[in-house]
């Protein structure tokens, strides 16, 4: 579907005609057709996200962000965080994944494995190499336990690469998230809701 067609549909259903199928457009289309809203498990690729034309919209658009209350306590630099800020379209997936982590591991193991060490999500910045915007700049990437999972810390030295953390990754992957550690053995702290 091209942008003009999307805009035409958006005008018909009465939402902002920006040519991007976001949450509102999708909901309005489903309502107009009297069908239930599909659950998105196939996230766009990084290239699609960077084009600014994916479901996640433009880079650094803070209107797309929401604050979610994590289902178990998360700590940033040792301080408990009240909420974490992510793109509204991944908010449900993040909440559900963290709830499943809590159900599977329990608080004690979560703490021992560092799964409560939150190292940031939304951040309007470029990648470490500086060539393009990071998925963090759309609020669709999260980092955990950064201290023991630096970019160039590989398996088995990265704390999140150990066997006991396998379920942690399986939970995120079931929600369509991608681990750079699991895919490329780099940046084990990082997960993102965009395909490589
Ligand atoms: Zn990251």
Any idea what the radius of gyration is? 18 Å
The main pleated sheet reads as:
3 strands, antiparallel
Shape: globular
| DSSP E strands, number | 7
Reported by name, the CATH topology of the largest domain is Muramoyl-pentapeptide Carboxypeptidase, domain 2
Give the low-pLDDT segments: none
Task: Write the topology of this structure.
Elements: H1 3-13, H2 23-33, H3 46-51, E1 65-68, E2 75-76, E3 79-80, E4 84-87, H4 91-113, E5 141-143, H5 166-174, E6 178-179, H6 180-184, E7 190-192
Antiparallel strand pairs: 1-4, 2-3, 5-7, 6-7
Helix pairs in contact: 4-5
Bound molecules: zinc ion (ZN).
Zinc ion (ZN) binds next to strand 5.
Please supply descriptive tags for the structure shown above.
196 residues, globular, binds zinc ion, alpha+beta, 3-stranded antiparallel β-sheet, 33% helix, Muramoyl-pentapeptide Carboxypeptidase, domain 2, 7 strands, two-stranded antiparallel ribbon, 10% strand, single chain, 2 domains
